[in-house]
Every structure is written in structure tokens, then in C-alpha cells.
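User: Okay, second chain of the day. Same drill as before: sequence in, C-alpha cells out.
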Amino acid sequence: MYDFVVVGAGFFGAIFAHEVKKVGKKVLVIEKRDHIGGNCYSYDDPETNITVDKYGPHIFHTPSKNIWDYINSFADFNRYQHRVFTTVGGNFYPMPINLATINRFYNLNLTPGEAREYLKSKTLAVSSPKNLEEMAISLIGKDLYETFVKGYTIKQWGCDPRDLPAELITRLPVRTSYYDCYYDDDYQGMPIGGYTPIFEKLLKDIPLELKTDYFAKRDYWRSVTKTLIYTGPIDRYFNYHYGKLRWRSVRFEIEKMPLDDYQGISVMNYADQEVPYTRILEPKHFYRERAHLSRGTVVIREYPCDDPSEPYYPVCSKTDREVLAKYQKAQSQEKDVIFGGRLAEYKYYDMYQVISRALKQIEKLLKVI
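Assistant: Same drill. C-alpha cells below.
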């Protein structure tokens, strides 16, 4: 009999298992995939000697020194700071939108103060934006929205931006300075050697069963544990009783090239709607300290898609939020089950937020056991 059976070896599950083992609890982790790490899984490509994130890049960033210190206890991080360019209409612009973007797009030479006033003249006052489009136009105006956001959003989410929640656009900073780092957080970087070694340390000496689908033997797993930790999709847990929540997924097209450098940056976005992919990744730029050891380069094109077997991003449309409320009510009635992580909570969390929630859940739990 286990104290905990953890379903899923991503950040929430791995950290939970690691921390309860430290206090002497008996824990087992089961994972549907053939590897640990969830969507943060990375591997070293033997042909190019480049660290590749199998499910797309995961730049670690956090405003919390406590979370930064915690994750650094499992890996050394480099000083990578995320900078992105966007190509649209055959031109290149720095992203997120900043003073350089504004000046280049409008062919102006504005100061920060002038740019703030200029943007105000372009925006429409919306007292209570009801969707992503309204929020975006209230922040940056119609010109910048239709050029940089609309087409990319339609590709990324597979729906009209007016069907997406307003707060989604707030993940994209807008600046009237030349500061071009994507994130404002004090602590940023990539783990040297990739993310997989972090999970190997987290799960060291913890029983682990890969290629194991919880739902194939659901009753059995519940019978061998006092408490279940579930990190999979919340709608799947309840057998889609109230309907399926919509998730957006990504298909990756990987190409190896005998070049030192393909695009000169880790991520290039493609905002034109007719371009089928949303961005091209070049992983070697995430790990510049190893660039001199690489042989050629790896290029990854991201194609957003609907793939229920590989949920990535919760769409969170109005209908989704209504269905989610029903699942959350049902979830509150489940005894001896803890739901955690992006999939189980249907939340667009960053990594540091998942880690924080896992640690807070453990702290709360240990007070009563």
C-alpha cells in the first residue's frame, strides 16, 4: 500500500513525489509516456550534440527568489534571456512590441513618452474588454493588433480571437522603451544540459512505471494508495461526463542542417496567417555555452493543431469555462484525490507557477498528516 500514487511525471507530479519521499512517505509515480518530464522532456541529439526540447522550448523565468533557489538546487542554469523576432509581410520586427517595433512599423523616431501618447491615439477605449480582440485593440490599437497578433492568434488557437478570454493577451508585454527581453522576471535562464536531468534528480530512488495508463487499471491504482495525485486532463478524469474541454496542441517538424546558424536567434515568430507554422525554433541558441560543441544545427517548425491525445494549451473559451465549472464542482467532491498542474486545473500556468502550487500543496498536506 502506497501513501501516494502520482499520475504523471511532469513538474507537479515529480516535485510532489520528491517532497513527500523526503518526509518518509511511500510513493509511486506512473507515467503514460515512455519518458519522465512531461512536456519539459529534453534530449541530447547525438548527431549534432545539441540539446533539444522535444515538446517545444521552456524558458524558465520567475519573479520568486524562493522558486529560483529551489529549481537551482537540481541544476545549474545559464543566463539565457528570451528575445524573439517576428516576421510579417516580409519584414522583421522585435517582439514583444517595444519602442523599436513601434518606430519601425510606423516609420517614426519616437521617444518613449511620445510613443505612449502615439499608442493612445491609436487605441480604442474599451471599458470592460470582453475578449482577446477587444483587449488587444484597447492596449495597442487596431494596426498593431491586426499585423502582429490577429493572424498569429488564429493559427495558434484555431479560433476567432473574439472567442478567447481577454486576459490571454496580457501574457504579451507591450513596452515603449527599447527593452526587448520577453520576460520581466528577475530570474531567467535555461538549465545547462536540459530539463531531463532535473527530473532524474527529482525522481531518484522513487518507484516509477513508464508507459502506464492510469485509466487502463483505474480501480487497481485507487486500491493500492491512500491518496491519488492526478495531473492529467480534468475532463478525462471524469470520463468527459460534462463534455470535452478544448485543448490546443502542437505538431513539430524537425530538420537538421549542416549550418553553423540558420536564423541567428532561438525563436522566430511568423505572424502572417497564410504561413502554416507559428514559429521556427533553433535550439542551439538556448545554450550558447555549448554552441561551439555543436555539429550543424537543428531547426524545429511548430504547427498548431487539434490533437486530443496531446493536450498542450487550454483554450478557455466561454463554453470551456462553463464546462470547467461543472468539473471543478465534481472535483471538490472527490475524496483522497489531489488535482494539480496545467492539465488537471485547466490553467495556462508557467513552470514556476506549477512548482509553486506543488510546494504549497505539499506544505498544506503535511500540516494534516
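The chain has eleven helices and 16 strands.

User: Thanks, on to the next one.
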